[in-house]
Write a sequence for this structure.
């Protein structure tokens, strides 16, 4: 730990800086249709990996909260879900940019795009529900149950459903994924650090957000006592 910052937090910054600089400046394969847009691989895909990891952690903390009834678990559940939602939004935006280049339109109702949007709307509904309940214990309990249900609905629809239908998205609807034909060694050296870096960085943000929620809750309790 350096000056109060854990090694994995420093590593996340280093990996992201490396992936951004290398992703924009290193040579990439000359692929038909994709061309220079292949560089979006280092930004678009890590968002979805980060989102999935965070949603898994969020469901874990929701289960943990139902067993422990500790506010720290509730705050970690909601903070990881909120950062995951931001990652999902970033994933959709970068995906739309990529679709404009490769599919010649921002949105074409591809199954992957559609289920991703449905999933994000589900989690936005989770936050609306959470903010609509004033009693914290009731809010945390209902939010935890909702979060767990949404997670086990979201994962199948985002990763399974698109594979069962026609899709332009790589790895879905019979299309080969990037690993099958164009993720060469040079791309891997940037892609995997980008995925790890963004996952670690997003967990850092979620952890900080949870601490802020805990501090805010503690201050409100102190004001109530006074």
């Amino acid at each position: 730990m350096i000056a109060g910052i854990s090694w994995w937090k420093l590593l996340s910054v280093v990996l992201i800086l490396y992936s951004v600089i290398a992703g924009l400046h290193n040579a990439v394969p000359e692929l038909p249709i994709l061309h220079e847009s292949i560089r979006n691989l280092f930004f678009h895909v890590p968002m979805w990996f980060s989102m999935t990891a965070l949603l898994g952690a969020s469901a874990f903390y929701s289960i943990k909260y139902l067993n422990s009834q500790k506010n720290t678990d509730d705050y970690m559940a909601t903070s990881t879900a909120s950062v995951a939602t931001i990652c999902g939004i970033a994933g959709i935006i970068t995906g739309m940019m990529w679709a404009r280049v490769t599919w010649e339109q921002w949105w074409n109702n591809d199954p992957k795009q559609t289920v991703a949007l449905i999933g994000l709307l589900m989690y936005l509904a989770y936050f609306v529900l959470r903010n609509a309940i004033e009693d914290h214990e009731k809010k945390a309990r209902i939010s935890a149950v909702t979060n767990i249900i949404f997670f086990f609905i979201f994962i199948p629809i985002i990763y399974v459903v698109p594979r069962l239908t026609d899709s332009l998205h790589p790895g879905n609807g019979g299309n080969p994924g990037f690993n099958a034909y164009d993720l060469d060694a040079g791309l891997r050296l940037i892609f995997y650090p980008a995925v790890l870096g963004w996952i670690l960085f997003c967990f850092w943000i979620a952890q900080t957000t949870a601490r802020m929620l805990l501090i805010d809750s503690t201050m409100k309790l102190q004001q109530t006592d006074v």
Summary: The radius of gyration is 20 Å. Residues 107 and 117 are 11 Å apart (CA to CA). The longest helix spans residues 185-225.
